[in-house]
Specification:
Pfam families: SHMT (PF00464). This protein has 281 residues and is of the alpha/beta class. The protein is built from nine helices and eleven strands. It has a seven-stranded mixed beta sheet, with helices on both faces. α4 links the parallel β4 and β5. The chain is globular, with a radius of gyration of 18 Å.
């Protein structure tokens, strides 16, 4: 709570997906509507993909990025929210390289009387050090993983106002999980302690500097960067003009010890198993 400046948190979720599912279970009923980012635009599988429980149990509506800027069009999100009247709006992504304005999402959620959940799995470490706008005390629920930019063990967590404590606690256990993994929770505590240090803030700053530097280098080498750049720890490369698929790029790079993700991109014509893009970071 000291790290995130909140009055309630639950550190038991085994993963970010479990944290998301616990939030859904706490405030939604089967068939309720969710508005989330489209997977091809940067969203996550747990935000409504048909192979995930979220896509099977809830009515999913999605917003997209602007086709020109490849960034979130908040006015379009507002229009979709008013048209679909979701019970929950999800702000957050798995492969989006730009800053997310959680306050704009809050305004939209308030206009349609929806809950707002911020999935900060990728950016939590940047958020607590001030290098990304915070969702804490803005969103009703903030979920995160502890093994990405928080630099901790594999796991998840949920941050919310203490008025939701009872709902969240029983949704985590016995709702979606059994007993807590105490050794992982201890490791999370170590990671949180490290994240409070000045050295961690410097670490976060250098992550973004390195991401921007590599992104600029790839642009200069003739690669098209989705949205034209990055504000955080990752960026997407469109390989279409290189006549190379994401699947092929991953295979080639892994053979020399460089591990990256193949990734769908906006208007991707290839199968998600193949993809036209890669995610670095």
């Amino acid at each position: 709570n000291q790290l995130f400046v909140s009055n309630y948190s639950n550190v038991q979720p085994h993963s970010g997906v479990n944290a998301n599912l616990a939030v859904y279970l706490s405030v939604l009923n089967c068939g309720d509507r969710i508005l989330s980012m489209n997977l091809r635009d940067g969203g996550h599988l747990s935000h409504g993909h048909k192979q995930n429980l979220s896509g099977r149990y809830y009515e999913i509506h999605t917003y997209t990025v602007d086709p020109e800027t490849e960034m979130i069009d908040y006015e379009n999100v507002r229009k979709l929210a008013k048209a679909t009247r979701p019970k929950l709006i999800i702000a957050g992504a798995s492969s989006y390289s730009r800053l997310i304005d959680f306050k704009k999402f809050r305004d939209i959620a308030d206009e349609v009387s929806a809950y707002l959940m911020a999935d900060t799995a990728h950016i939590a470490g940047l958020m607590v050090t001030g290098y990304h706008p915070s969702s804490i005390n803005v969103a009703d629920f903030t979920t995160a993983t502890t093994h990405k930019t928080l630099r901790g063990p594999r796991g998840g967590l949920i941050i919310a106002d203490k008025k939701y404590a009872g709902l969240i606690d029983k949704s985590v256990f016995p709702g979606i999980q059994g007993g807590p993994l105490m050794h992982i929770i201890a490791a999370k505590a170590v990671a949180f302690r490290e994240a409070l240090k000045d050295s961690f803030k410097d670490y976060s700053r250098r992550i973004i500097e390195n991401s921007k530097a590599l992104c600029e280098y790839m642009k200069n080498e003739g690669f098209r960067i989705v949205s034209g750049g990055t504000d955080n720890h990752l960026f997407l490369i469109d390989l279409t003009s290189k006549e190379l698929t994401g699947y092929e790029a991953v295979g080639t790079l892994s053979s020399v010890g460089i591990i990256i993700n193949k990734n769908v991109i906006l208007f991707d014509k290839l199968d998600p198993i193949i993809t036209s893009g890669i995610r670095i970071g």
